[in-house]
Structure formats: C-alpha cells, structure tokens
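dude i think i finally got it to work??
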Amino acid sequence: MLMALLYRSISILIYLIEILILVRIIISFFNMGNRSPLFTIVYELTEPVLGPSRELIHKLGINTGMFDFSPLVAIFLLRIIDIIAKALLL
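look at this
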C-alpha cells in the first residue's frame, strides 16, 4: 500500500513536470515574452530538468541546429524513470 502510494506520487510529479515542459514549449513557440510571470514560473520549474538534458545532447556531440530537442529528451528520460519506479515499487 505504501509503495503504491509512493509510486503514484512519483508518477503525478513526473506528469506535472511533463505538462510544464509542454507549456514552456508553447510559450516559446508563440513568443509570449520572457518577462511574463507565467514564463518565469514555468522556466524556474522546468530548467532543472531541461538543463541536464541540454548538456547530455551537447556531450553526445549531437548538432541539433537551431532546434532545441532537450524537451523531448527530458520527457523520454522522465518516462524511463516512471517505468523504473513502477517496476521497483509495485
């Protein structure tokens, strides 16, 4: 029971981070402004996940040109973490 609750909490946290990453993509796509309070909050909450993803892409030597694929990498890694948590806790 406790393990199921822990997994559910981790799963919800991962889901919320994924939603925030998608909101950040939408904000940047529509160029809604980097100084808005919404952008600041979303940026502060997602950068700890997207920063390491960006560094991973850079360390692997992948040239993405003008596109930032770090949100895709971050979501992929979050899904892997969710699968591992499910396997360990349930």
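The mean pLDDT is 92.
im so relieved honestly
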